[in-house]
Design goal:
Blueprint (H helix, E strand, L loop, with lengths): L1 H23 L2 E6 L10 H16 L1 E6 L7 H11 L4 E5 L4 H10 L5 E4 L8 E6 L1 H16 L12 E6 L4 H17 L4 E6 L6 H12 L5 E5 L3 H11 L3 E6 L10 E7 L1 H13 L6 E5 L6 E3 L6 H15 L9 H5 L1
Helix pairs in contact: 2-9, 3-4, 5-6, 5-10, 7-8
Length: 333
């Protein structure tokens, strides 16, 4: 009898503690990261920074999952949804679309956000980016540096490259923009592109980058999640310029990260949470580009004249004076 009483008291105390913890927070959020997990120094880490900012500014509590494979997405989303305790559940990455589409239909009263793709359900807010704009900026920067004759990290071959994580529309849009931006500076420039085929394979990323470098490419952009870390390490070891993606990756290869193609996922995560807590959640598609502060670049190692050109280009993009092709084939014409 005494043992049962102790167990019941323990359960009551745990319940009271949990309720007090929830009451103390302004809101509660769950986030399911993309495969590759935290520590990618890119997409997932940027999303985590947004959660941390929301925790500090809006006093939220959060739970997080780091799936190791695509097949785990639906399991985590279902588990969180079934608890019915979250103001918002956030999916990070395009490849959660199918899982979220299924789960959102089963839990129509739960609010969801997905970043980097669209899920057409009445309880899902989708946040996507004008990827080609970011790519264009990176192409401009790379083209201007490869011709810099007095730079020990470049050569006279006028060749640059971009390596994507996987061949999907959003990566192809980045590559198309990169090619178009480079040709905006120099129509005769050579731009190579390829794909790792995975988001979490730095070894393969490094192998592909070395192959490009051996073909005299001296500026490489790695738009490849965790796989991009290998690309940047190759740039450091072979003494050329690498360009980071999503987050500031200057610390990955000090002295060799020319700039970073920033996707401000942190701001997007924070925005999604703020909208829910302020009762301004609206399902549908939110498109974020340079003008909306969703994309940009870091000055990093960029010379002053390149920064000036990038600011000029940004203005022309936002005012419609530059039209960026949406496909790789169109960019190469």
């Amino acid at each position: 009898m005494k043992k049962n009483t102790i167990i019941i008291l323990g359960i009551l105390l745990l319940t009271i503690f949990t309720m007090n913890s929830l009451a103390a927070a302004e809101g509660r959020v769950a986030i399911v990261f993309a495969t590759g997990g935290l520590g990618d120094k890119s997409f997932n880490d940027a999303a985590f920074a947004g959660i941390m900012a929301a925790k500090e500014k809006m006093d939220i509590e959060y739970d997080a999952a780091e799936p190791s494979s695509i097949t785990e997405y639906e399991t985590y989303l279902t588990q969180y949804s079934a608890l019915r305790r979250y103001d918002l559940i956030i999916s990070i990455g395009f490849d959660q679309a199918d899982a979220l589409n299924n789960v959102a239909q089963r839990f129509p009263d739960q609010k969801y956000a997905i970043i980097d793709t669209v899920v057409d359900q009445p309880n899902v807010a989708s946040y996507v980016y004008e990827e080609k704009e970011r790519g264009f900026l990176m192409g401009v920067a790379a083209a201007m540096l490869t011709t810099k004759a007095d730079d020990p990290l470049t050569n006279a071959e006028n060749k640059i490259g971009v390596i994507g994580g996987m061949k999907i529309p959003l990566i192809d849009a980045n590559i198309a923009g990169f090619i178009a931006g480079a040709k905006y500076i120099d129509p005769e420039i050579t731009v190579q592109h390829t794909y790792v085929g995975a988001w979490a394979d730095p070894a393969k990323g490094k192998e592909l980058a070395i192959s490009m470098i051996e073909d005299d490419i001296d500026v490489i952009w790695g738009a490849a999640g965790r796989s991009g870390l290998g690309i940047l390490k190759a740039a450091e070891e072979r003494n050329i310029y690498g360009i980071g993606a999503d987050s500031d990756q200057g610390h990955v290869a000090p002295g060799h990260i020319l700039t970073n193609g920033m996707k401000f996922v942190n701001n997007t995560v924070e925005l999604a949470i703020k909208q829910v807590l302020n009762d301004k959640f609206t399902a549908g598609v939110n498109v974020l580009g340079i003008e909306e502060g969703g994309l940009g670049y870091t000055e990093s190692l960029l010379p002053e004249n390149v920064v000036e050109k990038l600011e000029e280009v940004k203005n022309k993009i936002t005012t419609g004076k530059i039209e960026i092709p949406a496909t790789i084939d169109a960019a190469r014409k």
